[in-house]
Amino acid sequence: MEDDQWIFLSGEFVRKEDAKISVYDHGFLYGDGVFEGIRAYDGNIYRLDEHLVRLYESAKSIMLDIPYDFEVMKELIAETIRKNDLRDAYVRVVVSRGVGNLGLDPKSCGTAQVVVIVEELALFPEELYETGLEIVSVATRRNRPDVLSPKVKSLNYLNNILVKIEANLANVPEALMMNNEGYVAEGSGDNIFLVKDKVLYTPPGYVGALEGITREAIIEIAEEEGYKVKEEPFTRHDVYVADEVFLTGTAAEVIAVVKVDGRVINDGLPGPETEHITKCFRNKVATDGMQIYAQEAEIGG
Ligand code: PMP
Prior knowledge:
Layout lengths: L5 E4 L2 E4 L10 H5 L2 E9 L2 E2 L2 H14 L8 H14 L5 E8 L16 E7 L6 H6 L1 E9 L16 H12 L4 E5 L5 E4 L3 E6 L2 E4 L10 H12 L3 E4 L4 H5 L3 E6 L3 E8 L2 E2 L7 H14 L4 E2 L10
Parallel strand pairs: 7-8, 7-14, 11-12
Antiparallel strand pairs: 1-2, 1-6, 3-4, 3-5, 4-16, 5-6, 8-9, 10-11, 10-13, 13-14, 14-15
The structure holds 4'-deoxy-4'-aminopyridoxal-5'-phosphate.
């Protein structure tokens, strides 16, 4: 798909090699913009409304006008997937402040730049879903929520990149960051859940994590399945002694964690509750969501 990939870039579809933006774009110069990562499963875009609400709210928070209405944006995303002839896709929507001068002031920028990229992608290699992940906790702290709200999914991901660099140095695929008080916040690009005595725990928004859409879906599924879910702060100690640990995110979906800072979680294998919740999640995503392709006409209909 590499060679014939279409990208939506400010009003038109262009080939990947022609999808270029100005070095004066404030997204490039200052990380001034917002983005979303969305996923389509078998011709359905999963929780598109929720993703776009987060995108438009993030944009509103930084006073960035997205030049398309909500409904137009939905159709545009579906059209980009159709144009690339995909049914399963990872979708990246980026809205940057647009082209301005070298100064910080967003007043110099013209219209916001909208980019939609769709690709076939899985974040972690498939075997890691079977074995679970080994992760570490790192020194990099989560941005304080009173400085940069985690509800704004902005192009400022340096904090998360520093976490990823620490994960790379430790030779593990993902890492956990704490907030300033030492409570567990989240991974570099995913939320964390613990299971202890059949109760699920995940940090509340005020700890500083992004309140992920997959996190919300997992809370709903877990409650439907009869689990108690508690959104409360916890420490690394609680992670080490949990019965099960897993991460959630649009790209990662649900993935078990089996070792944290050298501590083996339980018996070192993905646990039964994680497996059950993963199964329920995968059943849901296959049928939920906005349909990308019109229904094929029924035979004889
Ligand atoms: N935390 C961070 C920092 C993220 O970038 C993401 C991915 N968007 C998540 C958590 C998971 O959020 P979601 O389930 O909405 O993808």
